[in-house]
Amino acid sequence: MNRRTVFFVSDQTGITAETLGHSLLTQFEGIKFKQITVPFISDVDKASEVVQRINLTAQVEGYKPIVFSTFVQNDLREIMAGCNGVFMDFFDAFIGPLERSLEMKSTHTTGKAHGRADSEAYTRRIDAMNFAVANDDGVTTRNYDRADIVLLGVSRSGKTPTCLYLALHYGIFAANYPLTEDELDKRSLPASLQDYRNKLYGLTIEPDRLQQIRGERKPDSRYASAQQVGFELRAAEAMYQSNAIPYINTTKSSIEEIASQIIHERRIKRGNSGHGD
Amino acid sequence: MNRRTVFFVSDQTGITAETLGHSLLTQFEGIKFKQITVPFISDVDKASEVVQRINLTAQVEGYKPIVFSTFVQNDLREIMAGCNGVFMDFFDAFIGPLERSLEMKSTHTTGKAHGRADSEAYTRRIDAMNFAVANDDGVTTRNYDRADIVLLGVSRSGKTPTCLYLALHYGIFAANYPLTEDELDKRSLPASLQDYRNKLYGLTIEPDRLQQIRGERKPDSRYASAQQVGFELRAAEAMYQSNAIPYINTTKSSIEEIASQIIHERRIKRGNSGHGD
């Protein structure tokens, strides 16, 4: 298999370079990428050191490494750009058009993108994460007044990771409530959820996949049996439908896709960036 | 204050477009950006509808909206590029250079960047999130064998959000352990942590900030008093130093910066993308 080394370099955390680089690399199949992140390249010496490392890699491997960069400081970016790699700086490509359009110069300040620049939005994300952990798995329903969304689903249908992602990425207050066998037997919406109908969103999953997930946790259990899984999922979906609760099948979707879909559909106001669509 | 409308548009979740756009916009101060994300623009009709919406905004506001785009499908991107906005497509700018360097065509497949393309890495992230929640706040130490990192700190020093971020973003198994007053009194490393010295990482925080955070939670309490907070933080830092546990002051850093620093310093192998530096 074809192998290539990829560097993510930045005078900040490198998170933007990684996120953007990963998105691009997913478009190339059949290549094994060895990925190296070097964050906090904050002075000329550090930049020169990384250039040497990239050049050595090029020499040893016989290919130019791919270098994804997000340098805010122009002098450091210029040093990096002199490396013997395929150098792509994300800021460089777009800051120019933005400056012309906005008719102002960018600040060239580090630590903005993943720093605490927007303190209100940052605090909201932290609060949302603490909220998600404190309101996980139906431990309490008394904070649902403060919730932006309450996810419903049977055990292991993906509620917890989705709530954490909504909190961390969007600053959304997300609680989750596991539908128990008793509640599914009764078929009516649990009493404690009645007042929050407009905040509810259901998760479901293919029976085969749920059997597999539960089986890894409790092999050969009733909990992981085809019969039990089938009953729970049918009852949950019937509950969603008869109460007009929107729901999504999580089997083939990532938490990013699920979260994005929920926000889009429920038109939830985001805590991180102003308004959703 | 100057106001501009920004659209994030994509035939996928729009998360990459948002990440790129947010990073760039932080470099322009004094402008209020109204941000609108339109994900899942998956056909010609939807694309045309969004173009009309952008054009209407341009007409009403008298400025071209800024449009950050990540279209994998060329035909849809071309429709979007015809809008009356400052159009910046991220894939368009970088896929070409990458194709030339890698000597292969990109797949132009949607749902890769934030989908479940790399199933192993995805599963690891989900497992890491469940691990973080199950091992939050020292509820148990019996899973520390499986932990990549165990964060230490006094109450409200930022342990939980940092663990969740390490899990969600990097697929790192992160537990956290709150240092109690009893343990801080004794000054020695708690017995249950002795076997995991090479996984420990300490958090600390400025006393003023911690007083503020605790005060919001329990006003006028001993817990939030200057004396108590001062004692706890001095004792925690002394414990880190006498046990050679690396630690970081979280006061002015975001969880992204803290996480990035911990990975960099502890040289933790990342679950999401191969290897850290």
Characterization of this structure:
2 copies of one chain form a homodimer. Chain A has 277 residues and is of the alpha/beta class. The first copy, chain A, contains 10 helices and 8 strands. In chain A, the strands form 2 sheets. In chain A, strands 2-1-3-4 form a 4-stranded parallel beta sheet, sandwiched between helices. Chain A has a 4-stranded parallel beta sheet with strand order 6-5-7-8, with helices on both faces. In chain A, α2 packs parallel to α3, α5 (119-134) packs antiparallel against α6 and α6 (159-170) packs across α10 (255-266). The longest helix of chain A has 18 residues, at 44-61. The relative contact order of chain A is 0.10. The model of chain A is unreliable at 272-277 (pLDDT under 50).
